[in-house]
Amino acid sequence: MVPVFAPLSVVPVRGEGSRLWDQQGRDYIDFGAGVAVTSLGHAHPVLLKALQEQAAKVWHISNYYTNEPALRLAAKLCAATFAERVFFCNSGAEANEAALKLARKRAVDKYGPEKIDIIAFNGSFHGRTFFTVSVGGQAKYSSGMGPNPAGIVHIDLHDEAALRRAVGKNTCAIIVEPVVGESGVVPVKPEFLKLLRDLATEHDAALIFDEVQSGNGRTGALYAYMNTGVQPDILTTAKGLGGGFPIGAMLTTAAIADAHFTPGVHGSTFGGNPLACAVAEATFDIISSPEVLAEVRRKAAHAATRLRAIGEKYGCFQEVRESGLWLGCELKPEYAGRAGAFMGAAAESGVLVLVAGPNVVRIATSLVITDEELDTGLDRFDSACQRFFAA
Description:
This protein has a seven-stranded mixed sheet, with helices on both faces. It has 13 helices and 17 strands. It folds into two domains: about 10-30 and about 290-390, Aspartate Aminotransferase, domain 1; about 45-285, Aspartate Aminotransferase, domain 2 (3-Layer(aba) Sandwich), CATH 3.40.640. With about 400 residues, it is an alpha/beta fold. Its EC number is 2.6.1.11. Homodimer.
C-alpha cells in the first residue's frame, strides 16, 4: 500500500462491542472507534441486520434513480435538525467539498465572481481533497502541491479582532468545527459562534458547521450546534453517521439548495447508495434516541472524572477536555510531543487510543460502550500511564 499511513503493529481481525482481537488473539478495548466512526461499536446486531436485509435487495442503482433507504434517511435527518435538504456522499471530506462549492455557487450567483472568500481557522481540519485541505488550517497537509485555491483566509480561533477584519463584502462562507477535533478536542466558545452567525448574516455569507466528528451523538447532543444556540446555514457530517459504513451528508435549507444546486451542478456516484443509507438509518435511529444521548453524557462525565484523576496521579495531563464521549487529554509541557509514543504504549497495555496533534491523547469510544468495557479500558489506560509517565 502507498505509505501515507504509519500504522501500529497491531492488526485487528475481529470486533464485538468495544473490544477488538488481533491476529494473535489478544484483546483490546477500543477507545478510538475508528476515529469516532464506529459509533455503535463492532458487529452491532441492529446494523448487521440492516446491512444483510438491504444486501439481499439492492446494493447500487446510481443517482439516475432514487431509493427508499436514502429517502427515509434524508427525511429523518431533516426532521431532527434545522435542515430541509440533504446531499449524500461517502465521507466528511466530500461533504465539506459539497458545502464549500455550494457556498461559493450561492454567492457568485447572487453577487458575481468576486464574492468567493472563505474564512477558516488555524488548526482546523476539513478533509483531504485539495479544496478541503486548503481550507483546513494546517499547512503541513496542503503544502508541496503547488498554489492553493484563491480566496481562503485563515485566522486564529477566538480572535474577534482578526475575524472582524477578515469578514467583508466578498466573504461567501465561514466554516468552523464547533468542537475542533484534530487540534485537541477544543470546544469553540458559544459567544464566538454567535459572532460568526451575526457576521455571516450581516455580509450574506453562508455559515458552515463542520460536524464530521462532533455530530451523530458524539458530544451527547445529536449535533453539537444544538447546545450552542447558533444555527448554521449548512452542516456537514459523516464518520459516526454510518456506524462504520462509509457515508457522508451535507445538510442545508431549501432556499439555499434549491436555487443553487440544480441538476448537474454537483454529484456523487456512490453517494446515497442503498447499502450505506440502510445502515446509516439503523444507526441514526439508535444514536438519536434520548436514552442513548443521556447515557453518552453520563458515561462521558464518568470517563472525564477518572481521566483527571489519572492525570493527577501520574502528573501527566495539564487538562482533560470533555465533549461527550470525545475527550482530549493534553500533556504537560515536559511531555510535549509524546502523544504518538503514548498511543503505542497504550496499545501494549490493551487499550487503543488516538492522538489529536503531538500533545493531546484523544479518546472517542463507542456511544454505547458498556460500563464494564469503559472501566476496563480506563484501568488499562491507567496502567499505560504508569508505564509511560512514571517510569
